[in-house]
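Data card: per-record layout.
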Amino acid sequence: MMTNDSTSTFVLASPDSIQLVDHELRLRLDVICHQNPVKGWAPFYQFSMQREDEVVGVIHLRIGDDPALTHHLGHIGYEVFPNFRGHSYAQRASKLLLPLARLNGMKDLWITCNPENLPSRRTCEKLGALYVNTVSVPVGTAMYAAGERLKRRYHIRLV
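The structure for this 159-residue chain is written out next.
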């Protein structure tokens, strides 16, 4: 990750040099957000997970070491649409994003999920992430407002 000291704008690395294909699964870059100071979002990439011409889900890679990312949001967030679940798409897509996280200078990656979300827990475990702990979602966050109260935290060391 590079910054421009005069504006503190994050410049995310280009994913062009990284292979974002795993057998029939391909990640299509939809959005690069270098910063969003209005919403307070970390810089991120958004990809569509595609199988042939079908979009089977979406995945985000958030960059940085903001305490919200490492505590309850996580660096990777994914959703596999209901008709396409059971094919390890989230795990495979997450694995494809690890080189991009490294390219942005990240050494540690955190993934969180709801404790009752067994498929997401299995995704983290199949990815090789280590369970660290379960934390409370902070009051006043969008997650809390949506009814989420706890997050399981998984860690991947990238170096």
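Known properties of this structure: The first strand starts at residue 2 and ends at 4. The first helix runs from residue 67 to 73.

See the next section for split statistics.
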